[in-house]
Write a structure and sequence with these properties.
By secondary structure, the protein is mainly alpha-helical. The chain has helices spanning 2-8, 12-19, 28-45, 75-78, 93-99, 104-111, 117-128, 135-153, and strands spanning 58-62, 88-92. The N and C termini lie close together (10 Å).
């Protein structure tokens, strides 16, 4: 089975191209797929193999909000990348409800409350980038997620 699956894995370039197209769409199918991918990345960052995420109590959060007025941006300026996987993380519904469209300087303090490893890793990235979160950082994170998925998570 392992050899069969390995043979079915696409070359890195093809995988990367497809992965870079992943983005949030307002459909249940899309949300389920993104939650699954984000949860597998979260699981990779955990110290244990057990799956701990309760999908009924977790939301997909846009770091750069879809309504970016408080960030000094317009919807038309961000439309090509705001829904990209690299701009998303998982949060408990309780923490997510506090975030709304807050500016990044306020948002990061709330993100720090999360106990999900994927969000902790995102906080480290944001702090490393001095809270800079633009199209470049979003697409770089998505590329890093693709490499992690290809080389570590779904490696056979």
């Amino acid at each position: 089975l392992e050899n069969t699956l390995r043979d079915e894995l696409p070359p890195w370039e093809l995988f990367l191209d497809s992965f870079m197209e992943l983005s949030y769409k307002n459909s249940e199918k899309s949300r389920r797929l993104l939650k699954y991918i984000l949860s597998k990345i979260d699981q990779y960052y955990r110290d244990t193999d057990e799956e701990i995420i309760d999908f009924s109590n977790v939301n997909i959060e846009h770091i750069l909000p879809r309504n970016p007025k408080s960030w000094g941006l317009t919807k038309s300026q961000i439309k090509t990348y705001v829904n990209k996987l690299g701009n998303l993380t998982l949060l408990s519904t309780k923490i997510n409800s506090k975030l709304q469209n807050k500016p990044i300087s306020e948002k990061i303090e709330i993100l720090k409350e999360s106990n999900l490893p994927i969000t902790k890793e995102l906080v480290r990235t944001l702090e490393y980038n001095n809270l800079k979160w633009t199209e470049h950082e979003i697409m770089e994170r998505q590329k890093q997620m693709a490499r992690l998925a290809y080389e570590k998570i779904w490696k056979f």
